[in-house]
Amino acid sequence: MKATEVPEITGAYLFEPTPYADERGFFCRTFDADVVRSVGLDPHAFVQDSLSRSVRGVLRGLHLRSGAGEAKLVRCSNGRIFDVVVDLRPGSPTFRNRAFFELSDETQTTLYIPAGCAHGFQALTGTADTSYRIDRPHDPAEDVTIAFDDPELAIPWPLPVTSMSQRDREAPSLAEVLKHRET
C-alpha cells in the first residue's frame, strides 16, 4: 500500500493498495496502520465505521461537521463513485480548493479527508457501496450541508441527480455556510 498526498487539499491523502491477483480474483489490504502512521495520522483515532449503498445517480453531500470537524477515510468497496472534497478550513493554504476523484471497487483506493473539509459523492454504477471510517462519533446536531449545485463551487457532477435527501436538496449556499461559521 502506498500513500500519496492530494496536492489540491493540504493534509488529504490517497491510500492505494497493492492487489494480489490470480485466477480467483484479487486480494488487497484496504487499511494498514503503519502506512497511515507514516503520513502523520493516528490509525487509532478512527472510532466508527459506516457504509452507505446508493444507486446510479444518487448524490450525497456536500457534508461536513461543525465544531472540531470530522476526519474520515472513504472507500468505494463496490461499484464506482465520483467523490468531491472542498477545503473549508479558514487557515489552510488550500482554503476553498476542490478536488475530484473516482473511487471504485477496481482499485479499492481509500481517500483520507481532513477535518474541516466538505465531502460529497455521486454513484456512477447501478449500485455503489461507500465505506467511511470516521474519527469521532456522529452527532447529528453538528451536521452541516452545502448546496451540491452551488455556482461558486461549480462541481462537474457527471450524471443527472436521480435522488438525494431532503436535507441535501434544501442545503444553503457555500457563502451562507461560511457566513454562519464566522459568527
TrEMBL record:
<dbReference type="GO" id="GO:0019305">
    <property type="term" value="P:dTDP-rhamnose biosynthetic process"/>
</dbReference>
<dbReference type="InterPro" id="IPR014710">
    <property type="entry name" value="RmlC-like_jellyroll"/>
</dbReference>
<dbReference type="GO" id="GO:0005829">
    <property type="term" value="C:cytosol"/>
</dbReference>
<protein>
    <recommendedName>
        <fullName>dTDP-4-dehydrorhamnose 3,5-epimerase</fullName>
        <ecNumber>5.1.3.13</ecNumber>
    </recommendedName>
</protein>
<dbReference type="Pfam" id="PF00908">
    <property type="entry name" value="dTDP_sugar_isom"/>
</dbReference>
<comment type="pathway">
    <text>Carbohydrate biosynthesis; dTDP-L-rhamnose biosynthesis.</text>
</comment>
<dbReference type="InterPro" id="IPR000888">
    <property type="entry name" value="RmlC-like"/>
</dbReference>
<keyword id="KW-0413">Isomerase</keyword>
<comment type="function">
    <text>Catalyzes the epimerization of the C3' and C5'positions of dTDP-6-deoxy-D-xylo-4-hexulose, forming dTDP-6-deoxy-L-lyxo-4-hexulose.</text>
</comment>
<dbReference type="GO" id="GO:0008830">
    <property type="term" value="F:dTDP-4-dehydrorhamnose 3,5-epimerase activity"/>
</dbReference>
<dbReference type="GO" id="GO:0000271">
    <property type="term" value="P:polysaccharide biosynthetic process"/>
</dbReference>
<comment type="similarity">
    <text>Belongs to the dTDP-4-dehydrorhamnose 3,5-epimerase family.</text>
</comment>
<comment type="subunit">
    <text>Homodimer.</text>
</comment>
<dbReference type="InterPro" id="IPR011051">
    <property type="entry name" value="RmlC_Cupin_sf"/>
</dbReference>
<feature type="active site" description="Proton acceptor">
    <location>
        <position position="63"/>
    </location>
</feature>
<feature type="active site" description="Proton donor">
    <location>
        <position position="132"/>
    </location>
</feature>
